[in-house]
Amino acid sequence: MTERTAVSRMPIAPDGRLLFGGDYNPEQWPEEVWADDVRLMKEAGVNSVTVGVFSWAKLEPRPGAREFGWLDRLMDLLHAHGVGVVLATPTASPPPWLGRLHPETLPRDENGQTVWWGSRQQFAHSSSAYRRYAAAITEDLAKRYGNHPALRMWHINNEYCTFDYGTESARAFRDWLRAKYDTLDALNEAWGTAFWSQHVETWQDVIPPRRAQYMRNPTQVLDFRRFTSDALMECYVAERDIVRRHSPAHVPVTTNFMPFWTGQDAWAWAEEEDVVSVDAYPDPRDPLGGQYNAMIADMTRSQARGPWMLMEQAAGPVNWRGANHPKPPGLNRLWSLQAVARGADAVCYFQWRQSRQGAEKFHSGMLSHAGEEGRTFAEVRRIGAELTGLGAAAGAQVPADIAVLHDWHSWWAGGQEGRPSSHVAYEEVVRAWHRALWEAHLTADFAHPGHDLSAYKMVVVPQLYLLSDAAVENLVAYVDGGGTLVSGFFTGVADPDDRVRPGGMDARLRQLFGIRTVHEWWPLEPQETVRCGEFGGTLWSEELAAADGAEVVAAYRGGELDGFPAVLRRGRAWYLSTLPEPPALRALLADAAAGAGVRPPLSGLPAGVEAVRRGELLFLLHHGRGEVTVALPDGAAYRDLLTGEEHTGSVPLGRFGVAVLGPVSKVARGSGAA
Ligand code: GLA
Predict the structure, then answer these.
(1) So what's the pLDDT on residue 479?
(2) pTM (predicted TM-score)
């Protein structure tokens, strides 16, 4: 078990007011519009805006020039109107001149093609020129605004995500590998270069996994992903350290994650942040969009180990799906309050005012093209007003008895070419497991397999193909210590070098789950199901021999695996060798949870109603369009913080309805801040 170093998270809402606002890009508008912006921000209850995310060319139109006048006026204006600023370093989008003067700052893709300016994020993370210019503009920005009274938080770069296969990246990759392996012998051994004549004799022969004739060396690919995450993090840390030097200690630093983005080991990154923030864009048309929003919240809260910041969401449609659907009335409010229920202390959007030009002019804003009379803005106003009354949530914790284990390194290794099945998408498997818990009304955290798990009554592993020895021992110790562990298929197969463990699965795990032998993996076709006892399995099946003392919970029926165990259990450790269809997975996890003493916050919850506790509050969120009634525990009286109404016995919820229930005595005293 790896101890997580103590990170002291900084409060997001120190004055007990949840943050509400969004990215504000005033450089896209004549200054006359700004006065209108602050008037409407006030009207909508906006108390925080993120400024400067893509302002590099405006701040530094020529190399070394500094144009801070507009930003001075803007910061003062926002401050005068009580709107705090999350100030961004502009380094996600270098101006065209940087690419012209220093072509080496432009990334190269796997084919060696240059990624040009003309969009955004065209920076090579390991380019020394890029890092020099980024540090310089960051330094001057921090010096100028580090003590500005409007400054609330620093936002570094934006959604770090670029890969680079170019020359400087190759050099940095070699340095990273030297630090990791020390010798080429160790690298050759870890990469298994005896295969296909890949032995490297000099460091010059070590390159990023550029385009090749056929499948590339999987450990080279895995290490390159690790390196890329680390190289981007170095860029973040460099800018973070600069802004910290020039601002008071109470100003936190963040960078906004994309949720479940494959390019970043966000467990490691989160340890470097004062506030953990994320951008959440579930599809309004997805019937399980609410579940995805919950999963993003659970992951971000777990990275933050407490309150987190919803840095971006959309008030209406995005503009990067096939068809970009608006949010039907009430959905923006529902998902915003859902984020608060699951630990957010800030609810923000991309972006404040919808653009009229540029690539995102059809992406919604809080203030859409329809303007202040529009439906979108009306709902934004309502959300702003309601959040003002939810100070009792600020800073409060969301209790969870279950942890879902997730690890980027395992994702990177398990998702490569040449595996038993290319139909298994790791993120979909994780989502299926989280969905099962969500539908069973069980609140879950996420955790890394190396974390201390002892606080959880149940731990689930949707799939961890790669596990270190320490992680395996952590899981074994967790079960030995009384924990319930439920694991999905193709887990514990490889070590951290992506070397298959003897027997196809770690021996300690086989012992834990009661598996004597893994004979073969039998992946399924995308629409295929396999019968297992009473339910259907999808995606995968395994030919396993059970060990003595293992209980076969369900066996395969029919087909090649007829009679072989599908779900095995030894004591508190369960192994699912397939992905059960949703109702079956839900029932199975609910059963295991009940056995572990985990119960939903309320019993008898109707389908589609999510119930989450946060501190002393109970959030009820209705994801459906009809009317439902939620039964409350006998004898308890609650007050809905949103309406002020008192409820005993039950609460009715309409279409996308939300109730935030506090104990009557507490709320009656009018407690504002937690
Ligand atoms: C990301 C970016 C924003 C914007 C939105 C659009 O989250 O950070 O700048 O492009 O996507 O959805």
Answers:
(1) 98
(2) 0.97
